[in-house]
Amino acid sequence: MNLSVNELEDLAVQIRNFLIEKLSVTGGHLAPNLGVVELTLALHYCFDSPRDKMIFDVGHQAYVHKILTGRMDQFDTLRKYKGLCGFVKRSESEHDVWEAGHSSTSLSAAMGMAMARDLKGENNRVIAMIG
């Protein structure tokens, strides 16, 4: 992601408006996602997904991550049969490296991924988002 600070601020507003528009129709976890817009933008700005592993402790805070990883056009199918999942889902995208529902698995997952990375001699980063 190669945007200026002003462009990132504009993108945050666009993402919030998009989430409000789409989730008012499909339903979904609105407040948790509105609360992590800047955090998720910063993570995608600083890290290189899917090379760097982003692990969400609370899977329903990952809608912004889904938008930034190419799934924006699927939000009309959110939480529908064969549609976009309301949580992080590994079969949905290579950017989803850990399936989480509500919480408390990200630290152990991150530790395991970091240990596996080290054993394989790789140098990617592993990030656990808790909240």
Strand and helix map with partners:
Elements: H1 5-26, H2 30-34, H3 37-46, E1 53-56, H4 63-71, H5 106-120, E2 126-129
Parallel strand pairs: 1-2
Biggest pleated-sheet summary: 2 strands, parallel
Name the structural class.
mainly alpha
The helix count comes to: 5
Computed Rg: 15 Å
Low-confidence stretches at least 5 residues in length (pLDDT < 50)?
Answer: none
Helicity level: 40-55%
What letter string, H or E per element, gives the SSE order? HHHEHHE
Q: What is the end-to-end distance?
A: 24 Å
Q: What's the arrangement of strands in the largest beta sheet?
A: 1-2
Number of strands: 2
Give the amount of beta strand, in percent. Answer: 5-15%
| Shape designation | globular
Average pLDDT number: 94
Can you walk me through this structure?
The protein is mainly α and 131 residues long. The protein has five helices and two strands. It has helices at residues 5-26, 30-34, 37-46, 63-71, 106-120; strands at 53-56, 126-129. Strands 1-2 form a two-stranded parallel ribbon. The protein is globular. It starts with a helix and ends with a strand. 26% of the residues are buried. The model has no long low-confidence stretch (mean pLDDT 94).
Question: Could you write a compact summary of the structure shown?
Answer:
This protein is mostly helical and 131 residues long.
Descriptive tags:
47% helix, two-stranded parallel sheet, globular, mainly alpha, 131 residues
